[in-house]
Amino acid sequence: MDGAAERHGPTGIHRRRAIWSWAFYDWANSAFATVVLAGFFPLLFLDFWNAGESAETANLRLGWANAAASLFIALAAPLIGALADRAGARKRLLLLFAVTGMFATALLAGVPGGAWLPAASLFVCATIGFLGANLLYDALLTSVAPPARWHAVSGLGFGLGYLGGGLLYLGCVAAALKPAAFGFAGSTEAALAAFLVTAVWWALFSLPLVIWVREPPATAPAASRSLLRQTLAELRGTIRHLRHYRPVMIFLLAYWLYIDGVGTVIRMAVAYGRALGFERSHLILALLLVQFVGFPAAILFAHLGERIGPQRGIYFGLGVYILVCVWGAFIRAPWEFFVIAVLIGLVQGGVQALSRSCYARLIPAARSGEFFGFYNLMGKFAALIGPPLFGLFGSWFGEVRYSMLALILLFVAGGLVLSRLPATAFTAPADQSAQ
C-alpha cells in the first residue's frame, strides 16, 4: 500500500464500504434533526409539557433550552475536536455523544404531561449528544475517503440525510394524523412514540459506522495533561492567525448573526405556528414542505449565486427571510403558513451553501481545516441569540407575533456586516501564504 493509501485508509471494496457506512450515519442522525428538533418536540413542548402556560412563556423556555445546548457545544467544540484528533478517539467520542443523544431522545417518550422541566432537560441532553456527535462525524470524513473525493462523499451524506430524515418524519406524521390506523389512542401518544422510534432509527443506522469505519490513529498520543496544554496552544494559534485576516473576521461576524436567524426559524417555526392556533397537522405538513422543497432548491440556489455573485445570492436569501418574518407576524390562515414554508425551503439550504463557498474564497487553502474549524464554531454559537430573543420579544410585548419581528434584527445586522466586504473579496481564493 502506498503512502497516500495508508493515510486515507483501505482501498477498493473496503473503502467503498467505509464511505457508505460513514454516509449512512447522516441518514441515521438526520431523523433527530427533522423529527425531534424541528418537528414534534416544539409541538409537544407547547401543547403537552407546558399545558396551561401562555405561549409566550412556553416559547421562552424552549428558546433557553436551545440556547443552553448550543452554548455547551460551542464552548466545548475546539477542545473536543483537538483531543479527539490527538488521542485517536474521534469514533469513540462520536459514539459516546450519539448514545447519550439516543437515550435522552428515547426517554422523552415517557415524560408526563405538564413536566416541562424534565422534558427541557432531556431535550438539552439529546441536542448536546446530536451536535457533539456531528462534530466528530465531520472529522471522520478525512479518514474514510481520499481528498479528491471529499466533496462527493460529503454530498452523499447530505443527500442521504435529507432522504432518511424526511422518510422517517413522513412516517411519524402519518401516525400522528391517523393514530388509530397505527394502534395509538390519539395523536399525542403517536407523537410521543416518535421519540422512541427516532432513537431506534438513530441507533440502527449507526451500526454500519460502528462496524466498518476505522478509528483514525492518534496524531500525538500523550498524557491527558499534555493533551490539554497542546489543545489550548492550538486554539491560541488559530486565534492569532484569524487576526491577520480581517475579511475573514468580518465574514464570520456576519455569518454568526444571520445564520442565527436562519437557525431560529428552523427551531422555533413550529412552536410559533402552534402558538398562533394552527392545527398540528398544518404545521407538520408545512415542515414536510420545507424538507422536500429544500433539497432541489439548494442546488438551484447555488447556480443562482454563480450567475449573480454569491454575496448577492446571500442578500437575496436574507431578503426572503425578512419577508417571511414580516408576513409571519401577520398571518391568519393555514395557506399562508404553507406559502411561508415553501419560501423558507427555497432559500434555507442556498444561504448555507453560498455562505460556505464565500468563506472558502476568503481563507488560505493551506489552512482550510483550521479556518473551517472556526466557521463551524460560529455555526454552533448560532442559536445563542435568536431563540431567547424570539421568546423575549413575545414576553416583553405580550404578543407572540412580535417574536417574528425580532429575527429581522439578526438578518439586517448580518447583511450590513457582510456589506463591509466588497464583492471582489469573493472572486478569487485567498492568498495561501502564511501571514
3D architecture notes:
- One of its GO terms (molecular function) is transmembrane transporter activity.
- It is found in: Endomembrane system.
- The chain crosses the membrane at residues 24-44, 64-84, 93-111, 117-137, 149-170, 190-213, 248-270, 282-302, 314-331, 337-359, 371-394, 400-418.
- InterPro entries: Atg22-like, ATG22/LtaA_families, MFS_dom, MFS_trans_sf.
- The protein is mostly helical.
- It has two domains: 1-239, Growth Hormone, Chain: A; 244-435, Growth Hormone, Chain: A (Up-down Bundle).
- It is built from 16 helices and no strands.
- The protein has helices at 3-8, 12-47, 55-87, 90-108, 116-144, 150-177, 187-204, 207-212, 224-243, 246-275, 280-308, 310-328, 334-362, 368-381, 386-397, 402-418.
- The longest helix has 36 residues, at 12-47.
- The model is unreliable at 1-9 (pLDDT under 50).
Mean pLDDT: 79
Strand content: under 5%
Secondary-structure element sequence? HHHHHHHHHHHHHHHH
When the domains are counted, the total is 2
* Global structural class: mainly alpha
Q: Briefly, what CATH class of the largest domain?
A: Mainly Alpha
Task: Work out the radius of gyration.
Answer: 21 Å
What oligomeric state do the depicted chains represent? single chain
Which superfamily, in CATH terms, is the homologous superfamily of the largest domain?
MFS general substrate transporter like domains
Separate helix tally? 16
Helicity level: over 70%
What's the shape?
A: globular
Q: The CATH topology of the largest domain is what?
A: Growth Hormone, Chain: A
* Distance linking N and C termini: 37 Å
CATH architecture of the largest domain: Up-down Bundle
Beta strand count:
0
Poorly predicted regions: 1-9
Main β-sheet, in a few words? Answer: none
